[in-house]
Amino acid sequence: MLELFWLVPVIPFIGFLILTLTFGKLPQVYAGIIGAGSIGLSFLFALLAGSSFLAADITAYSQTLWTWISVGDLEVGFTFYLDGVSLVMMYVITGVGFLIHIYATGYMSGDPSFSRFFAYMNLFVSAMLILVLADNLVLLFMGWEGVGLCSYLLIGFWYTDPNNGYCARKAFVMTRVGDAFMAIGLFALFISTGTLNIQEAMFNAEAEWVVGSGIATAVTLLLLGGAVGKSAQLPLQTWLPDAMAGPTPISALIHAATMVTAGVYLISRTHVLYLLAPDVQYLVGVIGMITLLMAGFTALTQNDIKKVLAYSTVSQIGYMFLALGVGAWGSAIFHLMTHAFFKALLFLTAGSIILAMHHEQDIFKMGGLRKDLPWSHWLFLIGTVALVALPFTSGFWSKEEILASALEHHEGGYLLWLGGVAGAFMTALYSFRLYFLVFYGKKTHDGHEVMGWHLQGPLVVLAILALIGGYIHIPVEAVFPEVAEHHPSLFYQAIMIGLPMLGIYIAWLIFIKGKLDLNKLAGQGFGAKLHRFWYTQWGMDWLYDKVIVSPYVWLAEFNKSDVIDSFYNGSARVVRFCHDIMSETQTGQLRWYAISVAYGLLVLVTIGVLL
Amino acid sequence: MILAWLISILFVGGIGAWLSEKSNPELPRVIALATILLDLLLVVLMLVAPGALGLDAAAQADLGEPGQWLVLYSSEWIPRFGISFIFGADGLGLLLITLTVFLGLVSLGSAWHEIKERTGFFYFNLLWTLAGVIGVFTALDMFLFFFFWEVMLIPMYFIIAIWGHENKEYAATKFFIFTQVSGMLMLLSILVLVFFHFQDAGEITFSYFDLLGTNIPPGYAFWVMLGFFLAFATKLPTVPMHNWLPDAHSQAPTAGSVILAGILLKTGAYGLIRFAIPLFPQATAAFAPTAMLLGVISILYTAKVAFAQNDLKRLIAYTSVSHMGFVMLGIYAWTSQGVQGAVMTMLAHGLSAAALFMLAGGLQHRIHTRQMDEMGGLWGAAPKMGFMALFFTVAAVGMPGLGNFIGEFLVLLGAFRISVAAAAAAAIGMVVAAVYSLIVIQKVFHGENTHKLELKDLTTIEMICFGMMMIGLLWMGLYPQSMLDMSEPTLRSLGVLFFQ
Lengths: 611, 500
Known about the structure:
Strand content of chain B: under 5%
Number of strands of chain A: 2
Shape of chain B: globular
Strand order of the largest sheet of chain B: 1-2
Helix content of chain A: over 70%
Shape of chain A: globular
Largest sheet of chain A: 2 strands, antiparallel
Number of helices of chain A: 25
Largest sheet of chain B: 2 strands, antiparallel
Number of helices of chain B: 19
Order of helices and strands of chain A: HHEEHHHHHHHHHHHHHHHHHHHHHHH
Radius of gyration of chain B: 22 Å
Largest interface: A-B, 52 and 59 residues
Structural class of chain B: mainly alpha
Distance between the termini of chain A: 101 Å
Oligomer: heterodimer
């Protein structure tokens, strides 16, 4: 079955073609069957290919479809590559993707652009699969840009609202900034290693680069630029919360489970390069730590249910970056997978809540919903405890691994660990704030659970995965350098388990017991300023607007009519002016001509005499 | 001979179309269609079955590198001045001829319902422009080349001046002066070149093959080269010689814009690759950094100006200049990846820009405005149009999988080898391209349809044209090797730097 694994990314693409070329004429039932069915079929092929890959006991399998670009020394094939890491990614994308697609057939039913929605979704899955299955960085870049495009299209899916369009453009342009860095990184990598094939490039780099050399630092920094853009990490993280303008299944699929983790995938895919640039690798960890803390604080102040989840996604990807920074490559991929389970669950459940509340997303207008929405309540609780990493949930195992690795990382790891556990506390605080505010307290609005097998079915599967997904073994040992088992001492383990519990307890004190008057605290003086500062993403949006966006718009507006043109028009005007003077002299009066001739003669004679 | 046939068919067809208007104003477009289809048939035969036409690389005259020319024809014209008919097509030429005939067909599709007045003369001009362009792509005698350079200019002047929009005289005159002045400089350079060759070898000749490798005194070489460069860089165009283009485009009828953006600009790039660089290798080597800088400035400067435009056609025109900046950058990097990238950008931009102009023209035809603030929310009213706009915009942004990406990626890679700074600055173009492109989609197709515009969605003819261009761009994006293999022998024979 392994020979057929190229079908995995192709089937969703065929689905996209069918849905596009019918221009929305297809009845919704069929559009839904094609849209979700193509992903299901793709998942099936992924399972078959994956099981024969695992059975074959090989480390990697690659399949060339055709030569894509061959110019001079550049050789790029349309080649797919399967190893432990891409296998896990492939399962996550098709598996979680399939569940989200099924959910979406319920969530989007009745939307006039139903078919267009699934067309974009299928294109996205196809591009995402190309990204993770590419054997070279150009093909990876194709998937990389493709998912960015689909993200743009789906954030702005409800296009009549200009704000959605703004958010979509912001996401696309900001990630493109990262992509430009990444493209330059590819060029530099190609010049110095002579290839863009990922495995060969890593092999050559290992043989030729000196650890910590300029080229290693430059290439890894540039690739990191692409990764922070796509994965919404500092300093390019501000687009992700705005991306919540898209329909909720999109937030679950693209902006939680798959696309935003592409940066993590990229870095772990090219981990050999990062091992050759230890400073940059540590920087990855530091970026992860700072991002996870900043996003945690911001999540604490948001009042839109999807935005809280968005910041929590930024924060959780921060953990993955932290893992990469301390060389826990496998743990990063592991957390990527468990996060896909519980965050998809949280987003989709949030979608159900939003449906039940007639598209209300403000958590302060919810409250006391646990009776009205029992399904959503339990599902959301499961997602929340996995996010908070309570013992034995999926999130616990992956986060535990990351923090343990940080703790034992030789230098600077302790700092990252401290940030990580502080973040774990924050996570508990903002997650249960959200949970308590939505499901406890005084009921202000009525809600009715919207039921249907395609809504609750996928959620139940995801909930099971969120709970027990930590016991799944991911086959990545052959890909990454071996890591020793970490066994932190009981003291550290107690801290790592205890702090989230403390966070929940404090959230309970504040939001259930009302021990602390938040309005008073955040309503005036320093508290208000701090609240505002956190709420507005630490002022970064403001900064970008003032430093980059506004000057560019001003400059463009200022030079709207293209200053260079005035040179040409100016010279034309001079010619016309001279022409006008000359034609003025043609008066037709004999007297005028006679005098001109006489004066002319006089001038000439004078000049003659003087010379 | 077949190349002369390609051109003559267009010349004759043009006259036929003009004359036929008297009997029926509907007739010229039919004749034009038949003419272009006939040419297309010949081109397709050249591509797929060169043997059937008796094209045999081995049987050619003793000109140029063996094996480079797929077809070469030479006969005397004015022997006294060493002027002859030399037509030749190699891989690069054939690619561009194919593009020309293909877009000729597309422009015909866009004119089909739009041109209602003086149809005979219109199609005459259309066909003669195409003939001039094919002549430019195949002429290998400098005098003949210059002749065709003029032939493609004058009919295009009429197309803009007669069938253009509200400010057509200004635009047509500007177009004419820019091209004519720079063309005169090239003529001067040709004559000086011929003169130096005469001094050296004692014979007067305009043959490209003889003039290659002419010994020019170092002090003069730069100025002679500059004459060629200015003519081609104006046509391309490059900042700061680009100002004719936004006016010409916004005023030209749709078919005119399609041909201008799709094909005419490419003659500039072709001239640089075929003539300006191989004829003056030393002078070029010293000049290349300046040219690359101009390329980068073009990319960034016009991207910024494009962003501020409200006139849809003007905006697309500026983006064309921006994309041609990549071509300039790639050509003057003179590495295999750079020049191959430039060639791919030429082909891909030919399709994507033509399609975008056709959309803008179609919109203007339907709602009688080009101003984007008078549009909005058109997706709901014309979803097919919206989809096409999205597709070609995305192509222009450089989405991998479509032709433009291959071009820009190779250009940047090729330029990176020569100048890291130039490639890095040009890479900013990736970002600003997204900024100006997406704003178009937003202003025209997304948002609320506040002006309550109602319009007819794309017609069958338009769908066929767009469909063909879509397939072309996908082909270029997914299997560019088929084209890269064609142009490679050309580039090798021209001395492009190949890294192995």
